[in-house]
Amino acid sequence: MAKMTYIKAITNGLDQVLQDDPKTLIFGEDVGKNGGVFRTTEGLQDKYGEDRVFDTPLAESGILGMSIGLALTGWRPIPEIQFMGFTMEAVDSVGGQMSRNRFRFSGDVTMPITIRTPFGGGTHTAELHGDSLENLFIGIPGLRVVTPANPYDAKGMVISAVENNDPVLFMENLKLYRSMKDEVPDGHYTVPLDKANVVREGSDITVVAYSAEVNEALKVADKLEKENISVEVIDLRSLSPIDDETIFASIDKTHKVVIAQEAQKMAGAGAKVASDIAENDIMSLDAPIGRVSAPDSIFPFAMAENDWLPNADDIEAKVREILNY
Amino acid sequence: MAAKSKHVVDFAKIKSTMSDPYKKPVQVIDENGKIVNQELFDQFSDDELVTLMEKMVWERALHEQTMNFSRQGRLGFYAPTYGEEASEMGIAHAMKKQDYLFPAYRDLPQLIQHGATVKEGYLWSKGHYQAYDYVRRGVRAFIPQIIIGAQYVQSAGAALGIKKNGEKDTVAYTFTGDGGTSQGDFYEGINFASSFQAPEVFFVQNNGWAISVPRKTQTAAETLAQKGVASGVPGVQVDGMDILATYLVAKEARDFVVAGNGPALVETLTYRFGAHSSAGDDPSRYRTKEQEKPWFDRDPLIRLRKVLTDKKLWDQDKEDKLVAQYKDEFKDAMKDAEAAPKQKVSDFLKNTFEVPTPDVAADIKKYEAKESK
């Protein structure tokens, strides 16, 4: 057990899977000698050699396309796309190709590929770096889309993702990389890819969130506790699939829900959660479903990010609105 | 200002000469059946010449019978291979069982030569999951790719996988057409395989047309063979209507890449005699009979038939019997394809994830209930 940042926890998880399975390969832009532009793969090439951890030419479709060929020849690829905004270049490789192969070949061909990519606002990156593009990927059958919200989950989930025999889009939050430290166990452990986590129990209202918004929700829960308002916070962890069971169990208890996400509101994970509740558990609610999200504009210019991103204040306001309905 | 005199760089000269090394298509027999390179011709035994002819006759018969089925409404999407027999069978003849094949949609004949069945080809056209049963039998081939270009990046990964596995005498093969060379993935695939010095042969079957768009619209480059040079990949043109030349070049390319020299690129000069697909494409909208004529004169079967007939290795009777025999086999294959089991949506759902997600699991139940009625 050691205190680790979110990013070090991922590095530690990658180290573990490289050690456990000689067929795992890490590759992408700058992941070798440089250890990644954020140092997520730091030290791994030195430890496992250039055959296992290597740089590629600069081309995202090439990186994810070659992952398919490597998987076909028996390898377990862990490609990195340097920023989630760059995944736009490789949508066919993900949606048109790797995610369809289990289906195409009736299970005879599997694609155990984990695509790691950093995303998320608040770090004032250049355009098309921090965009939350999960809304684009959660509509792809055959693809799992997951994102950890803390260091413990980051390590356990990256190990689960690599060990999973289907393609997984593993989204790493840029802002959380170095802003969060937590106790992380040594060695091998896993965190399930499809189980939401009740990170804080409460009885008056449920806030469903993921990634950095989980921390914003926890701030709200802390603050409202002083007013004797008990907020339950659920970290989705997985955006595709959504773990409805955990959400329904919570709202059956609290009867109120607010769904918070950093991404735009249109066609996203929050919309799926709201739709699942509306379809299957609406009678548990005694107030409308509350939504907190970024507005449906293009991801903003860096200097305006903080005006655009939803934060604890936005969640608090929505929680109060739903509580007072 | 300096006086206007010599160019600093003579771009015009570079442009006018840059394609020169690539504009020498390898040829063994010309369109009149004349042996133009005796030394290369002498590499073939009589048996091998007959085998190559038989393969082209097989592909032509497959095309004819498949078009019949298509007209009868018994097939879905089919991309005619008429005219490309030398290119496709010449390359297929150079492949070995252990090679990985990444075909595109017009490459079903090579896929079948590599171990898929005609029945599977028909099921692919009709849209049935058993089309891909060849993988279950250990045939090293991917799907006939629809997203043109994707096969280039995927096969580059397979070539790297072969190299990392330490498999000797094994290559990845992929195909596209002249239109495919315009895709970004085309270049990315060649460049990746080159960067990794992986064992791959990239084929461009330049049949002159991407549906209605002529080759010259795809690029101002004079050849497609030169498309490799920017990635450090040697390229060559071959007369794709000459199966002897195509086979020898494909074999040479294979020998070169398995020796660890990195990938190679081969452009076969061929022609799509028919439509782009059996689904409503009408070539008379975009090309004339006069434009087609010189290519029909280069029909790959005519020239080898003449050579073999002169050598008393072939006659029309033999060919007619073969065609009849092949067509009977294709008819049987079609019957088998038509007897394929009804597909179940519940099976598709079961093959979406290894461990079904809750939504998928619920759908499996729903569809199993429907299907049991």
UniProtKB/TrEMBL annotation, chain A:
Pfam families: Transket_pyr, Transketolase_C
GO molecular function term, any single one: oxidoreductase activity
UniProt cofactor(s): thiamine diphosphate
Domain Transketolase-like pyrimidine-binding: 4-179
UniProt keyword terms in alphabetical order: Oxidoreductase, Thiamine pyrophosphate
Annotated SUPFAM superfamilies: Thiamin diphosphate-binding fold (THDP-binding) (SSF52518), TK C-terminal domain-like (SSF52922)
Source taxon at top rank: Bacteria
Protein name, UniProt field: Transketolase-like pyrimidine-binding domain-containing protein
Source organism per UniProt: Lentilactobacillus buchneri DSM 20057
TrEMBL record, chain B:
Any GO BP annotation: branched-chain amino acid catabolic process
InterPro entries: Alpha-ketoacid_DH_E1_comp, DH_E1, PdhA/BkdA, THDP-binding
Cofactor: thiamine diphosphate
Entry's Gene Ontology molecular function annotations: pyruvate dehydrogenase (acetyl-transferring) activity
Pfam families: E1_dh (PF00676)
Keywords (A to Z) from UniProt: Oxidoreductase, Pyruvate, Thiamine pyrophosphate
Domain Dehydrogenase E1 component per the UniProt entry, residue ranges: 54-345
Source superkingdom: Bacteria
Reaction equations catalysed: N(6)-[(R)-lipoyl]-L-lysyl-[protein] + pyruvate + H(+) = N(6)-[(R)-S(8)-acetyldihydrolipoyl]-L-lysyl-[protein] + CO2
EC supergroup of this enzyme: oxidoreductase
Gene3D superfamilies the record matches: 3.40.50.970
Catalytic activity, EC: 1.2.4.1
Subunit structure, as described in the record: Heterodimer of an alpha and a beta chain.
PANTHER family, per database record: 2-OXOISOVALERATE DEHYDROGENASE SUBUNIT ALPHA, MITOCHONDRIAL
Biological role stated in the UniProt entry: The pyruvate dehydrogenase complex catalyzes the overall conversion of pyruvate to acetyl-CoA and CO(2). It contains multiple copies of three enzymatic components: pyruvate dehydrogenase (E1), dihydrolipoamide acetyltransferase (E2) and lipoamide dehydrogenase (E3).
Protein name (database record): Pyruvate dehydrogenase E1 component subunit alpha
Organism phylogeny: Bacteria, Bacillati, Bacillota, Bacilli, Lactobacillales
